[in-house]
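Please predict the structure of the following assembly.
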Amino acid sequence: MYNFDYKELGLKCGLEIHQQLDTETKLFCRCPSKLQGTREPDFNIMRYMRPVLGEMGTFDKAMLTEYKKGNTIIYEGYNDVICTYELDDTPPFSCNEEARKITLELALLLNANIIEEMHVSRKNYLDGSVPSGFQRTMILGTDGYITLKKGKKIRIAILSLEEEAARKIKTENRTNFYRLDRLGIPLVEVTTQPDINTPEECRECAERIGLLLWMTNVKKVLGSIRQDVNVSIKSGTRIEIKGVQKLSWITILINHEISRQLNLIEIREELKNRKVSEKDIPQEPVDLTRLMGKTGSKSIATGIKSGKKLYGLNFKGFKDIFGKELMEDYRFGTEVSSKVKVISGLKGIIHSDEKLENYNFSQDEIKKIQNKLNSKEKDCFVLVLGTIKELKKAIDIIINRIKYVFKGVPPETRKALDNGNTEFLRELHGGARLYPDTDSQAIMNTVEETKKIQKTLPNYPWDIIEDYAKMYKVEQSSIKKLIFNGQLSLFDSLIDIYPAKPSIIITTLLNTAKSIKREGKIIENITNDDYRKIFLELKNKKIGKEAIEDIMRLKADSPNLTIEQSIMNLNLESLSIEDLKIIINEIVIKNLKIIKEREMRSMGPLMGEVMKKVRGKIDGEIISKELKTQISNKLKEMK
Amino acid sequence: MKDKLKGYKGKSIDLLKKYTIEIWDIIQITTNKTQLEGILMPRSEYSAPDFIEIKLENNYNVGINVSEIENIKKIGKREANYKLPEKEFPYNKDLPKLQLLGTGGTVASRLDYTTGAVIPSFTPSELFSSVPELAEICNLDCEIVFEILSENMKFEYWQKLAEKVKQAVDSGFDGVIIGHGTDTMTFTSAALAFMLKDLSIPVVLTGSQRSSDRPSSDAALNLINAATVAASDIAEVVVTMLGSPSHDYGLIHRGTVVRKMHSSVRDTFRTIDDIPLGMVRNRKIKTFKNNYRKRSRSETTINTNFEKKVALIYSYPGMENEQIEFYIDRGYKGIVFAGTGLGHVSTDVYNAIERAIQEGITILMTTQALHGFVGMNVYSTGRELQHLGVIPGRNLLPEVGYVKLGWVLGQTNDLKEIKELLLTNIAGEFIDREVPIAFNYNIDELLKNKKL
C-alpha cells in the first residue's frame, strides 16, 4: 500500500504504554480495584472544576478552554467499593506496596535506573476524569532500555506509577458523567525515547513491552492496556496518536500518518507554486443566509428555518486542495471538517471540491454563492451552517487551520480510529502541568529491596517463548498467546501434571476454550483448579482426551458442579477394554451389511456409531484399534 | 548559607557545600548508574537526611542517594518569577461594599508550582482573577489581618479581628467576610459573636477543605456563597460552607452553635442542636429560621475583654485530681469540662473540683456527646457536681463553653455575676428547645418543613 523509505524520511517514533496493575486494592486507598461493569451506581455527586492560577499569574490555556466549556461533572459511585478518598474528600493513604513492587520489578526488567526516593506529583486534568482535578503520579525508573529481536536497543525514558482516571459514561446537556470504580487503580506508564525508526520496529517494541507487562501481575482484560504512539518525520512535525488498542494497528497508523504529513507538505509547496500566501486567507465569513433562504438543499433549508445561519468563506487559489487525499479515505477537507466537529460540535463543513450536487444545490445556486463570495474558477469555497455562537468558533478554527497550511503540519494530539486513520483530538498540552503533591510524603525504593527483587527476576518473555516452543515442540505463537492470556503459569502447572502431550494442553487452553467461548458460554467459570483436575483425570486415564471439551462445556454452564460431578453427569466414567470390546462387537454385528459392502472403508461410519456410545470414556486410539481388529476379523470370517 | 540549602543536613549538605550548589541551581548529577539533570529543590526538615532532591526536566521530583553521587555540576539557575495578574477588581456602584479579612488558611491562596507550597493570595486583583464571579456580587476590599494557621489562633487574634470588624461597620461596609482555616473556625466565630453581640451587618466566616490551588477546590464556591450571605440581611456572625459533598449549596450556620464534624470532607460543618439558619445556592438565600438578627443602622458595640486563664478539659475514665490541681496551682480562673454523657466526670476528681471552687475558680460543664443538653439532675454524679458548685452549661458545645467562659471572666470578677452571665443567652449559643430533626437534619426535610 505504501512504499516509504523510512530512513530517507527520517522517521522517529516513540511509545507511551499504559497498563493497569492487577492489585487487590487501589494505589492510594484501600478500595478494591474492581470494575463494576454496567451495575447501577448507588450515589451521585456533582462537582465543578476551576482552573488554578499558574506561576505566571495566568491560567494554563488548555485548562481555560476546558473551563470555558462550562461543564458540570457528575460522579457516580458505589458505597461498597468507593470511599471518600475517591471523592477527593479525604487525603491519600499510603502507596500500595504490591503495586510499587510490581513496578519495581518492571523497572529492573527494563534495565532502568531506580529512583530511590520517589516524590508524588500532581498532573492537572480539568475534564473531570479525576475528582481532585489532578492525577497522582510518580516516577520509579529512568534511563532504561529494551532490546529488540535483532539486538537494537530502544531507550526507555521513564517508568511511572500513577492512578487510573475515572471512566466516562456519557455526556448529556453539558454534563459529563464519570463512574468512580476505575479511578485510582494502579497504572504503570512506560515511555520510550524516539529511537524507533520503522513501523515494524514500533510494533515489535510495543509487543515486547506488552509481553513484559503481561508477564507480571497486570489486569488481563481488554482496555487494561493503552498505547500511544508519537510519530515524526524530518519535514513534518511530532504528532501524538492516542488510544491505539491493537498491536496490529501500529504499522498502519504510522504509515497513514506519514502519508498525511507528506501530503500536507505537498499542499504547502503546491500553494507556494500557485503563489498563494497567508495574506489571501479571508478574515471574516460572508453571511449567505438570506441568499440561500429558499435553497433546494433540504438540510440547509431546514437549518436556516430553525434560525441557523449559513456562512461562506472563499479561499483564493485553493482549487483541489480541500479535495486532496492525505491518507486513505481522508481528504484535506476531512482534516478541517473533523477539527471543526471536535471543537465546535458542528456536523462539519461543505466545500466546493466536493460534488455539490450531493447536497442538492442547483447550478444556479452555486453560481449565486460564487458571485457573492467572489469565488473564481481556481478558488475553493467553504460553507458552514450553525448557530451564531457555533459559527464563531467554527470560522475561527477553519481560518486558523487553513493559515497553518503555509507552515506545514500543525503539532497536535490525534485519536486512533478503527480504520487505521486518525482524527484531531486536542491541542498538545503545554508543560508545567506537574507539581509536587503536598498531601503525601516521599516513598522509598531501598537499595536492599531492589537487590532482592533483582535476584528473583523472571526471564524475558521472548526468551521464554523460544525456549518453551523448542522444549514442548509447539508453535511460538501459542506460547505468546498463553502469555497474553495470562495463562503461562497455568500451562506450567498442567505440564507438571500431564507432561505426555503438551499439545493437548495448548489445544485445550487456546482452541477449545475459544470455541466454547464463541458458543456464548462463560469460559471464566472454568478455574485454573478445574483445568488441573481435568488433566489429573486424564493422566489417571479416568477420562479420554475427547471428554475434555464436554467437561469444559458443562462446567462453563454450571459453575457449581465440581469436575468429578461433571464427569459423573456426563456419564464419562472410564470404560474397560472388556466393556469396549462388547460394545464394538454389538455394533459390528448390527452393521454386517455395511461391512460386507465397504469392507475396511466401513471404519468411518462405524467409528462414528461407537463414539456416540463411548466418547470421552476411553482413548480414541484404543477404540479405533479395537474396531479395526474386530472388522478385519469379521471380514476374514465372512470370507 | 542555611536558607540557601533549606532542609538539607548530614552528608547531603556537605556534598552540596563541596560543589558550592544552592537551592534553585540547575545541576547535572552523575551517579554510579546514570546522569540526571534538574533544579535543586528545598527539602522538608523531616525528610531523610542523605538525599538530594531535584526537579527533573519533565517536572517530576526525585531524591538521589548521596552515596551514589559521583559528581555534581552546576549548569544554571532558575529564577522564580511569579507575576501578579494585571486585572483590576471592577467597581460597580449598585453592588454592596464588602470587606474580606484574611487570617491565613487556604481559602484564598495560590500555588508555587515548583515547591508545591500554598502561598496566600489576597490582593483584590488576584481574587478577581481566580474567582471573577465575586465582581458580580459585590465591590470587594481585601485586607490581610494576619497569616497564621488556624490552630495557632488565640484570644488576642480574636480581639484584633473583632476590632477590624467594628472598623468595617463604622466605615460603611455592608458586610464582612473572614477567610479562616477551618480547624478552629468555631472558636473564632463564637468569640466574635460574644465580642460583637449587637452587630448591624453580616459577618461571615468561610474557608476551604480543599485548598484553592487545586481544580476541585471548594474555596471559590465558598467565597461566592459567603459574599452572598455577607450582602444579605442576616446581621450575625455566621459560618458558610458547603452543605453536601457536591458543589451545590452552602449552609448558613449561626457562629455559636456550629462545629467542624469531619477532618476532611467538604460538608464538614454542622449546626449542632439546631437546624442551620438557612442555605445559599446560586447566589440566592433561603432561610430555615426566623429568629435571626436583621441588618440595621443601629450602632455596633464591641467588648473584647477576655480572660485567657481558662482551661478546656476532656473528661475520661482514669482522670486524676492532679490534672485539675495543676490548673489551680497555675492561677487559672475558669475550667470548662467536656463531660461524659449528660455532663459527668469521675468521682475520683471531686477533691480537686471542690478545692478549685473554694479558690474561686468557675467550673462550667458541657457534654462531649456534643449533641443535646447536659442533664445534671438525672444521676447522682450530676447532682453531686452541682452541689460542689459546677455550673451546668446547657447545650453549649465544649469549644463555645470555653470561649464564653473566657469572655464572661473578662467582664467581671463577681462570682454571682459570672454565673448569671454564663447562663444568659448572649449570642444565640443557647437554644430553648431542641427540635427533633436537629440531630439528623437533611436538606430535603429542611426545604419541606415550615420555618422555625
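Chain A has four domains: 10-232, 271-411, 459-569, 577-638. Residues 10-232 of chain A form one domain.
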